[in-house]
Amino acid sequence: MKSPSFHNPCIQVTNIKVWLYDFEESGDKGLKEYAFVTMNINADFTPIFTFNTKAIFVSVVVEYETTSYNRNQIMLWSTTITNSSTARIKSHKTLNRYSLHDITPSFNGVNGTYTLEWNVIPIIGMIKYGRADSNDSKFTCAFPNIDGSATYK
């Protein structure tokens, strides 16, 4: 599916902080790294909102590789657009809504690529998937060390 606006939708990560947490109460044993991501999101979905659009589900996904697993994807943030008047997203200093921690205990030496994705949910018909795939609309950066913070511009 084509890009939803005349300019490319984009995601920009401005800050990542990584801390150690003990997830023992959730059944995981031992300390694991947990990341907090601050990002700016800019997209206009009005051009793809038609008479047959019931909703557009928009999400920010981070993809990364580790030595144990080739491809990892975690959804960080999402929203549902239900009408064309709210189809423009301009969000500044947004924190990840969903937890960011890995099945392995560490993000050490891992680069993450942050991408904006969407699903157009029609009134009648099939759901269509879209993704901001151009290099200008993705953001790649490394996770900082434990108890550290990295700021990106």
UniProtKB/TrEMBL annotation:
One of its GO terms (biological process) is protein targeting to ER. It comes from the Eukaryota. Keywords: Endoplasmic reticulum, Membrane, Signal-anchor, Transmembrane, Transmembrane helix. The keyword Glycoprotein does not apply. It is a single-pass type II membrane protein. Its main location: endoplasmic reticulum. It is found in: Endoplasmic reticulum membrane. GO terms for cellular component: signal peptidase complex. The keyword Transmembrane helix applies. Essential component of the signal peptidase complex (SPC) which catalyzes the cleavage of N-terminal signal sequences from nascent proteins as they are translocated into the lumen of the endoplasmic reticulum. Essential for the SPC catalytic activity, possibly by stabilizing and positioning the active center of the complex close to the lumenal surface. Essential for viability. Belongs to the SPCS3 family. This is Signal peptidase complex subunit 3.
